[in-house]
Amino acid sequence: SQGGNSFHFYNKEMNIHGHDYLNVVSDLRKAIVEEQFVLMYQPKINIKQNRVTGAEALIRWEHPQKGLIFPDNFIPQAEKSGLIVEIGEWALEQACKQCKQWLNEGLGELTVAVNVSSKQLAKKDFYAKVKSTLSRHKLDGEYLELEMTESLLIDNSDELKLTLRNLHQLGVHFSIDDFGTGYSNLGYLKEFDIEYLKIDRSFISDLACNQKNKTLVKAIIQMAKGLELENVAEGVEDEQTVKILKDLNCEIGQGYYWSKPIKVDEFESFVTSFNAY
Ligand code: C2E
Ligand code: CA
Ligand code: CA
Ligand code: CA
Is the shortest distance between the CB of 261 and ligand 1 below 6 Å? Predict the structure, then answer.
């Protein structure tokens, strides 16, 4: 569109450098002040009982000019700039408030899962922030799940251990997100009080036709059971996959087969009709 003989290559990486990056960061600052973010909720299903057990809160940015922006297009910039700390606090606040509302409205004993970035966890006051958020909404820690990637736990410093132990004492649960995609030595699995392994979508999406992935998923589930962890399969898109996961004794599933991430009112209707049977 610049005309002439000039070529421009564009990729996602370029977004986190240079001019574009600076624009996004200044827009993000404004977005925080003006609360342009919204949380969508994707149901988590207990596969055997066929019931909704909770939701993962997934952030969206309602940009006044650019419209709805998905997290992959702004979370990396938010992390690089450190703004993820404030954005993450906002997400935690909203999710806890919402979860308490579900309990009050009698929607059920639903848990809410919030994604946590390494920048947030590295803050000295992370524990205090979570604790005060829970108490502000009179929400028992049992209802909150924090999702973090493996890379976050490779740093197994005493500080991190203490933070997680303290949170665990409030009843908060931890999930390893995107399990199987990191380069970790798995040693952290016994170092921390983790409840859930979320098997990455890349292993689940073609489970029905990919024998190698089936072997891997089976092994992950076995290992998790041995460590007394529960399994969550993400990216479940069809019935055949559900059947395989059920046979492999995978406890929880999440994916487009049941529902995409949806607005809170849609989520409430989903739970009401799904759990009615
Ligand atoms: P994630 O935590 O791995 O979230 C799962 C992503 O997979 C979501 O994308 C979800 O919409 C998508 N997904 C769920 N089921 C299916 C399926 O069956 N098939 C396919 N193809 N995709 C499925 P989304 O919402 O765009 O989020 C992308 C990532 O952004 C998340 O990956 C998470 O890492 C990050 N993110 C989202 N919200 C937050 C937040 O509040 N804080 C932080 N730090 N990161 C967030
Ligand atoms: Ca997640
Ligand atoms: Ca994930
Ligand atoms: Ca992911």
Answer: yes
